[in-house]
Amino acid sequence: MRLGMIGLGKMGGNMVLRLVRGGQEVVGYDRNEENVALIEAGGARGARTMDELMAALGEPGERAVWVMVPAGDITQSVIDDLAERLAPGDIVVDGGNSNFKDTMRRAEALAEKGIEMVDVGTSGGIWGLKEGYAMMVGGSEGAVERLRPFLEVLAPAPDRGWGRMGPSGSGHYVKMVHNGIEYGMMQAYAEGFELLHARKDYGLDLAQIAELWRHGSVIRSWLLDLTAEALANEADFSQLSDYVADSGEGRWTVIDSIELGIPTPVITLATQMRFRSQQEVSYAGQMLSAMRRAFGGHAVKVLESTRQESVVPEVEPGEHPAVAAPQNIDVGAAQSQSSGEEAQQLGETGQTRVTGDGA
Questions:
Q1: 167 DSSP assignment
Q2: Which residues are part of the catalytic machinery?
Q3: Which residues contact 271 (CB under 8 A, 6 or more apart)?
Q4: 313-351 pLDDT per residue, tens
Protein backbone atom coordinates (compact mmCIF):
# COMPACT_ATOMS: atom_id res chain seq x y z
CA MET A 1 0.00 0.00 0.00
CA ARG A 2 1.19 3.49 -0.87
CA LEU A 3 0.31 6.31 1.51
CA GLY A 4 -0.72 9.82 0.55
CA MET A 5 -0.10 12.67 3.00
CA ILE A 6 -2.15 15.85 2.75
CA GLY A 7 -0.60 18.69 4.74
CA LEU A 8 3.19 18.95 4.87
CA GLY A 9 3.60 21.42 7.72
CA LYS A 10 5.88 20.96 10.70
CA MET A 11 4.16 17.67 11.64
CA GLY A 12 3.06 16.22 8.29
CA GLY A 13 6.29 17.06 6.49
CA ASN A 14 8.43 15.44 9.17
CA MET A 15 6.20 12.37 9.22
CA VAL A 16 6.71 11.92 5.49
CA LEU A 17 10.48 12.16 5.92
CA ARG A 18 10.45 9.57 8.73
CA LEU A 19 8.34 7.21 6.63
CA VAL A 20 10.66 7.52 3.64
CA ARG A 21 13.70 6.88 5.80
CA GLY A 22 11.89 3.79 7.07
CA GLY A 23 11.48 2.43 3.55
CA GLN A 24 7.81 3.32 2.97
CA GLU A 25 6.37 4.72 -0.23
CA VAL A 26 4.74 8.09 0.41
CA VAL A 27 3.27 10.77 -1.83
CA GLY A 28 2.85 14.20 -0.23
CA TYR A 29 0.61 17.09 -1.21
CA ASP A 30 0.51 20.64 0.12
CA ARG A 31 -0.58 23.96 -1.35
CA ASN A 32 2.80 25.36 -0.32
CA GLU A 33 5.35 24.57 -3.03
CA GLU A 34 8.27 24.90 -0.60
CA ASN A 35 6.84 22.14 1.60
CA VAL A 36 6.45 19.83 -1.38
CA ALA A 37 10.01 20.53 -2.51
CA LEU A 38 11.28 19.74 0.98
CA ILE A 39 9.89 16.19 1.04
CA GLU A 40 11.06 15.60 -2.54
CA ALA A 41 14.57 16.52 -1.43
CA GLY A 42 14.14 13.90 1.30
CA GLY A 43 13.27 11.15 -1.17
CA ALA A 44 9.46 11.29 -1.14
CA ARG A 45 7.26 11.85 -4.15
CA GLY A 46 5.50 15.19 -4.25
CA ALA A 47 2.15 16.13 -5.78
CA ARG A 48 1.10 19.63 -6.83
CA THR A 49 -2.63 18.92 -7.15
CA MET A 50 -5.17 16.59 -5.58
CA ASP A 51 -5.64 14.91 -8.97
CA GLU A 52 -1.92 14.23 -9.13
CA LEU A 53 -1.95 12.84 -5.61
CA MET A 54 -4.81 10.45 -6.30
CA ALA A 55 -3.26 9.24 -9.54
CA ALA A 56 -0.05 8.35 -7.68
CA LEU A 57 -1.71 6.19 -5.01
CA GLY A 58 -2.51 3.11 -7.06
CA GLU A 59 -5.67 1.08 -7.48
CA PRO A 60 -9.03 2.09 -5.96
CA GLY A 61 -9.80 0.13 -2.82
CA GLU A 62 -6.12 -0.16 -1.93
CA ARG A 63 -5.36 3.47 -1.17
CA ALA A 64 -4.76 5.29 2.11
CA VAL A 65 -4.71 9.07 2.54
CA TRP A 66 -3.42 10.63 5.77
CA VAL A 67 -4.85 14.10 6.49
CA MET A 68 -2.55 16.30 8.57
CA VAL A 69 -4.16 19.75 8.43
CA PRO A 70 -5.56 22.08 11.12
CA ALA A 71 -8.64 20.83 12.94
CA GLY A 72 -12.07 22.26 12.20
CA ASP A 73 -13.38 23.50 8.87
CA ILE A 74 -10.12 22.80 7.03
CA THR A 75 -10.13 19.13 8.00
CA GLN A 76 -13.82 18.85 7.11
CA SER A 77 -13.29 20.32 3.64
CA VAL A 78 -10.40 17.97 2.89
CA ILE A 79 -12.36 14.89 4.02
CA ASP A 80 -15.40 16.01 2.02
CA ASP A 81 -13.18 16.27 -1.07
CA LEU A 82 -11.67 12.83 -0.45
CA ALA A 83 -15.12 11.31 -0.01
CA GLU A 84 -15.85 12.18 -3.64
CA ARG A 85 -12.52 10.85 -4.92
CA LEU A 86 -12.02 7.60 -3.00
CA ALA A 87 -13.61 4.20 -3.54
CA PRO A 88 -14.92 1.43 -1.27
CA GLY A 89 -12.04 -0.17 0.62
CA ASP A 90 -9.90 2.97 0.66
CA ILE A 91 -8.83 4.48 4.00
CA VAL A 92 -8.92 8.08 5.25
CA VAL A 93 -6.64 8.79 8.20
CA ASP A 94 -7.11 11.92 10.30
CA GLY A 95 -3.91 12.52 12.25
CA GLY A 96 -4.83 15.98 13.52
CA ASN A 97 -6.47 17.07 16.75
CA SER A 98 -10.10 16.76 15.65
CA ASN A 99 -12.93 16.58 18.14
CA PHE A 100 -13.78 12.89 18.65
CA LYS A 101 -17.48 13.59 18.06
CA ASP A 102 -16.65 15.07 14.64
CA THR A 103 -14.57 11.97 13.91
CA MET A 104 -17.43 9.63 14.77
CA ARG A 105 -19.76 11.62 12.51
CA ARG A 106 -17.26 11.61 9.65
CA ALA A 107 -16.67 7.87 10.04
CA GLU A 108 -20.40 7.21 9.67
CA ALA A 109 -20.62 9.38 6.56
CA LEU A 110 -17.60 7.69 4.94
CA ALA A 111 -18.87 4.22 5.87
CA GLU A 112 -21.95 4.86 3.72
CA LYS A 113 -19.55 5.01 0.77
CA GLY A 114 -17.59 1.96 1.92
CA ILE A 115 -14.59 4.08 2.91
CA GLU A 116 -12.77 3.31 6.18
CA MET A 117 -12.04 6.09 8.70
CA VAL A 118 -9.04 5.82 11.02
CA ASP A 119 -8.25 8.52 13.56
CA VAL A 120 -4.71 8.79 14.86
CA GLY A 121 -4.18 11.03 17.86
CA THR A 122 -0.55 11.98 17.31
CA SER A 123 1.91 13.26 19.91
CA GLY A 124 5.56 14.04 19.43
CA GLY A 125 5.54 17.49 17.91
CA ILE A 126 8.63 18.73 16.12
CA TRP A 127 10.77 16.07 17.85
CA GLY A 128 8.85 13.25 16.18
CA LEU A 129 11.13 13.04 13.14
CA LYS A 130 14.04 12.05 15.36
CA GLU A 131 12.34 10.37 18.34
CA GLY A 132 9.17 8.94 16.75
CA TYR A 133 5.52 9.66 17.44
CA ALA A 134 3.15 8.34 20.07
CA MET A 135 -0.02 7.37 18.21
CA MET A 136 -3.42 6.57 19.65
CA VAL A 137 -5.34 4.85 16.85
CA GLY A 138 -9.09 4.46 16.38
CA GLY A 139 -10.77 2.44 13.64
CA SER A 140 -11.66 -1.08 12.57
CA GLU A 141 -9.14 -3.81 13.30
CA GLY A 142 -8.80 -4.54 9.60
CA ALA A 143 -8.08 -0.95 8.60
CA VAL A 144 -5.55 -0.48 11.40
CA GLU A 145 -3.79 -3.70 10.44
CA ARG A 146 -3.47 -2.50 6.85
CA LEU A 147 -1.80 0.67 8.14
CA ARG A 148 0.55 -1.24 10.46
CA PRO A 149 3.69 -0.87 8.28
CA PHE A 150 3.36 2.93 8.36
CA LEU A 151 2.49 3.09 12.06
CA GLU A 152 5.46 0.91 13.01
CA VAL A 153 7.85 3.25 11.20
CA LEU A 154 6.33 6.42 12.64
CA ALA A 155 6.35 5.09 16.21
CA PRO A 156 9.44 5.24 18.46
CA ALA A 157 9.73 1.46 17.88
CA PRO A 158 7.58 -1.06 15.98
CA ASP A 159 6.24 -2.51 19.22
CA ARG A 160 6.12 0.66 21.35
CA GLY A 161 4.35 3.99 21.35
CA TRP A 162 1.32 3.09 19.25
CA GLY A 163 -1.77 0.95 19.47
CA ARG A 164 -5.41 0.58 18.50
CA MET A 165 -7.65 2.15 21.14
CA GLY A 166 -11.01 1.03 19.76
CA PRO A 167 -13.47 2.07 17.02
CA SER A 168 -13.39 5.32 15.07
CA GLY A 169 -13.27 8.29 17.42
CA SER A 170 -11.43 6.49 20.20
CA GLY A 171 -7.98 7.57 19.02
CA HIS A 172 -8.92 11.24 19.09
CA TYR A 173 -10.70 10.78 22.41
CA VAL A 174 -7.60 9.32 24.09
CA LYS A 175 -5.43 12.07 22.55
CA MET A 176 -7.91 14.67 23.87
CA VAL A 177 -7.51 13.37 27.43
CA HIS A 178 -3.73 13.17 26.89
CA ASN A 179 -3.66 16.86 26.03
CA GLY A 180 -5.90 17.73 28.97
CA ILE A 181 -3.34 16.05 31.25
CA GLU A 182 -0.62 17.98 29.43
CA TYR A 183 -2.39 21.27 30.26
CA GLY A 184 -2.40 20.36 33.95
CA MET A 185 1.27 19.33 33.99
CA MET A 186 2.39 22.49 32.21
CA GLN A 187 0.36 24.68 34.55
CA ALA A 188 1.80 22.97 37.65
CA TYR A 189 5.39 23.38 36.45
CA ALA A 190 4.79 27.03 35.54
CA GLU A 191 3.23 27.85 38.91
CA GLY A 192 5.95 26.05 40.84
CA PHE A 193 8.78 27.82 39.05
CA GLU A 194 7.06 31.19 39.43
CA LEU A 195 6.91 30.60 43.19
CA LEU A 196 10.62 29.69 43.26
CA HIS A 197 11.44 32.73 41.13
CA ALA A 198 9.60 35.03 43.52
CA ARG A 199 11.50 33.82 46.62
CA LYS A 200 14.37 36.29 46.22
CA ASP A 201 15.68 35.96 49.78
CA TYR A 202 16.92 32.40 49.14
CA GLY A 203 18.78 33.28 45.93
CA LEU A 204 17.51 30.09 44.32
CA ASP A 205 19.14 28.84 41.10
CA LEU A 206 16.19 27.66 38.99
CA ALA A 207 18.42 25.92 36.46
CA GLN A 208 20.07 23.92 39.25
CA ILE A 209 16.69 22.96 40.71
CA ALA A 210 15.25 21.88 37.36
CA GLU A 211 18.32 19.77 36.62
CA LEU A 212 18.19 18.20 40.10
CA TRP A 213 14.51 17.28 39.67
CA ARG A 214 15.28 15.52 36.39
CA HIS A 215 17.15 12.76 38.22
CA GLY A 216 15.32 10.49 40.64
CA SER A 217 12.47 12.91 41.33
CA VAL A 218 8.87 11.72 41.03
CA ILE A 219 8.05 14.81 38.91
CA ARG A 220 10.68 14.16 36.23
CA SER A 221 9.32 14.23 32.67
CA TRP A 222 10.11 15.32 29.13
CA LEU A 223 8.44 18.65 29.88
CA LEU A 224 10.86 19.09 32.78
CA ASP A 225 13.78 18.15 30.50
CA LEU A 226 12.82 20.94 28.09
CA THR A 227 12.35 23.38 30.98
CA ALA A 228 15.73 22.52 32.46
CA GLU A 229 17.43 23.02 29.11
CA ALA A 230 15.84 26.45 28.70
CA LEU A 231 16.86 27.55 32.20
CA ALA A 232 20.41 26.21 31.76
CA ASN A 233 20.72 28.32 28.62
CA GLU A 234 19.38 31.37 30.48
CA ALA A 235 16.33 31.74 28.27
CA ASP A 236 14.91 35.24 28.54
CA PHE A 237 11.14 35.15 28.99
CA SER A 238 10.83 38.88 29.60
CA GLN A 239 9.89 39.73 26.01
CA LEU A 240 7.38 36.89 25.63
CA SER A 241 3.68 37.55 26.01
CA ASP A 242 1.87 35.50 28.65
CA TYR A 243 -0.74 34.59 26.00
CA VAL A 244 -1.09 30.79 25.95
CA ALA A 245 -2.99 29.31 23.01
CA ASP A 246 -5.35 26.36 23.38
CA SER A 247 -6.06 24.11 20.44
CA GLY A 248 -9.34 22.79 21.83
CA GLU A 249 -8.52 19.50 23.52
CA GLY A 250 -8.44 20.94 27.04
CA ARG A 251 -11.90 22.45 26.78
CA TRP A 252 -13.26 19.32 25.08
CA THR A 253 -11.87 17.24 27.96
CA VAL A 254 -13.62 19.49 30.48
CA ILE A 255 -16.89 19.35 28.54
CA ASP A 256 -16.81 15.56 28.42
CA SER A 257 -15.98 15.35 32.12
CA ILE A 258 -19.12 17.37 32.83
CA GLU A 259 -21.22 15.16 30.56
CA LEU A 260 -19.88 12.03 32.27
CA GLY A 261 -20.00 13.51 35.77
CA ILE A 262 -16.29 12.87 36.32
CA PRO A 263 -14.47 15.61 38.30
CA THR A 264 -11.37 17.02 36.59
CA PRO A 265 -10.52 20.10 38.69
CA VAL A 266 -6.84 20.36 37.73
CA ILE A 267 -7.44 20.09 33.98
CA THR A 268 -10.41 22.47 34.27
CA LEU A 269 -8.44 25.15 36.12
CA ALA A 270 -5.46 24.81 33.77
CA THR A 271 -7.80 25.33 30.81
CA GLN A 272 -9.42 28.33 32.48
CA MET A 273 -5.98 29.85 33.07
CA ARG A 274 -5.31 29.65 29.33
CA PHE A 275 -8.58 31.45 28.68
CA ARG A 276 -7.56 34.19 31.08
CA SER A 277 -4.20 34.57 29.36
CA GLN A 278 -5.95 35.12 26.02
CA GLN A 279 -7.97 38.12 27.19
CA GLU A 280 -6.50 41.50 26.45
CA VAL A 281 -8.44 42.87 29.40
CA SER A 282 -10.61 40.92 31.82
CA TYR A 283 -14.13 42.36 32.01
CA ALA A 284 -14.56 40.53 35.32
CA GLY A 285 -11.41 42.18 36.65
CA GLN A 286 -12.60 45.59 35.54
CA MET A 287 -15.92 45.01 37.28
CA LEU A 288 -14.16 43.92 40.48
CA SER A 289 -12.10 47.10 40.41
CA ALA A 290 -15.23 49.22 39.94
CA MET A 291 -17.08 47.46 42.76
CA ARG A 292 -14.17 47.85 45.16
CA ARG A 293 -14.09 51.59 44.53
CA ALA A 294 -17.88 51.83 44.85
CA PHE A 295 -18.13 50.24 48.28
CA GLY A 296 -14.81 51.35 49.75
CA GLY A 297 -13.78 54.43 47.84
CA HIS A 298 -10.43 52.78 47.04
CA ALA A 299 -8.03 54.04 44.41
CA VAL A 300 -8.17 52.19 41.08
CA LYS A 301 -5.94 51.90 38.05
CA VAL A 302 -7.12 52.92 34.57
CA LEU A 303 -5.90 51.69 31.19
CA GLU A 304 -3.49 53.76 29.15
CA SER A 305 -3.39 51.16 26.40
CA THR A 306 -4.25 47.51 25.86
CA ARG A 307 -1.45 45.13 25.09
CA GLN A 308 -0.17 44.90 21.54
CA GLU A 309 1.34 41.64 20.38
CA SER A 310 2.79 40.07 17.26
CA VAL A 311 3.55 36.45 16.44
CA VAL A 312 6.86 34.65 16.07
CA PRO A 313 6.01 32.17 13.27
CA GLU A 314 5.93 28.43 13.89
CA VAL A 315 8.89 26.19 13.18
CA GLU A 316 9.24 25.34 9.51
CA PRO A 317 9.09 21.73 8.27
CA GLY A 318 12.49 20.05 8.35
CA GLU A 319 14.05 22.49 10.81
CA HIS A 320 15.87 21.03 13.80
CA PRO A 321 13.68 21.04 16.92
CA ALA A 322 16.33 23.03 18.78
CA VAL A 323 15.25 26.17 16.94
CA ALA A 324 12.01 26.06 18.96
CA ALA A 325 13.76 26.07 22.35
CA PRO A 326 12.81 29.06 24.54
CA GLN A 327 16.33 30.46 24.44
CA ASN A 328 16.16 30.47 20.63
CA ILE A 329 12.88 32.34 20.23
CA ASP A 330 13.71 35.21 17.90
CA VAL A 331 11.59 38.11 19.09
CA GLY A 332 12.95 40.13 16.18
CA ALA A 333 11.20 37.72 13.80
CA ALA A 334 7.77 38.54 15.22
CA GLN A 335 5.26 39.78 12.66
CA SER A 336 1.67 40.88 12.46
CA GLN A 337 -0.68 38.46 10.71
CA SER A 338 -4.33 38.28 9.77
CA SER A 339 -6.59 36.70 12.37
CA GLY A 340 -6.96 33.53 10.28
CA GLU A 341 -3.23 33.12 9.71
CA GLU A 342 -2.48 33.83 13.36
CA ALA A 343 -5.04 31.28 14.57
CA GLN A 344 -3.52 28.64 12.29
CA GLN A 345 0.03 29.45 13.45
CA LEU A 346 -1.05 29.25 17.10
CA GLY A 347 -3.04 26.03 16.55
CA GLU A 348 -6.39 27.59 17.39
CA THR A 349 -8.41 26.61 14.33
CA GLY A 350 -10.39 23.86 16.09
CA GLN A 351 -12.46 26.10 18.36
CA THR A 352 -13.73 29.61 18.98
CA ARG A 353 -10.98 31.88 20.17
CA VAL A 354 -11.31 33.52 23.58
CA THR A 355 -11.43 37.34 23.50
CA GLY A 356 -13.04 38.28 26.78
CA ASP A 357 -15.83 40.30 25.20
CA GLY A 358 -18.16 37.40 24.35
CA ALA A 359 -17.14 37.38 20.68
A1: S
A2: 175, 182
A3: 180, 183, 246, 250, 251, 253, 254
A4: 777 777 787 877 878 877 777 777 666 777 776 777 655
